[in-house]
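Question (not urgent): is this output format expected?
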Amino acid sequence: MKKATTTIDWNYLEQHNWCFDTAMSQSPINIDETKAELMEDVGEIILDYSTTVDEIIDTGYAIQGNVTGKATINGRIFHLQQFHFHAHSEHTINNTHFPLELHFVHQAQSGKVAVIGILFMLGKENDVFNQIIEIMEEKSTDHFVDLEKLFPENHTFYHYLGSLTTPPLTENVEWYVMPDLIEISEKQLAQITKWYDHNHRTIQPLHNRHILKKEFDN
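Got this back:
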């Protein structure tokens, strides 16, 4: 797996040095389901992702896949830039962490950033995850990955305004965290976490922000 050419000047052991004192809308957060407000907007997320991952690289802090595609979120188009993994999960639901969290990072033409977070649990082997691992281990030449199958069938999500979870911690990022868990096997988790097993940011204060929930029947 190729390493990124850029170097980073921060690490997860010194998170207390990352942030500026005036930051009030940071991520990740704990999602308290009892305090989430129902989202009145249509809120639909429509995915149109490429099934070819351009490359998977070691950024120095995460495993990242560079890929194209788009997501239409509440009627607005966001272009997929990349996906990457955090272990354990960065977001918590009712103060519970999960073994792994996958972030799909998008950007609109306006510059607005939207991140969709997928949470994982231990269970049966995941075929799509195997496709990613084969590219990481350079066993695949076609780079085919059906990324949309890494999403839960039900696209119910929690939405809030936050930030990037790594420096520069830019705020005004739209977050969409899906609570329905995706299964991976213990072996697959180990294949990812052998690279990074502690690349998660600590939970940040909610302050006066609202968490919205959009529920879908299917």
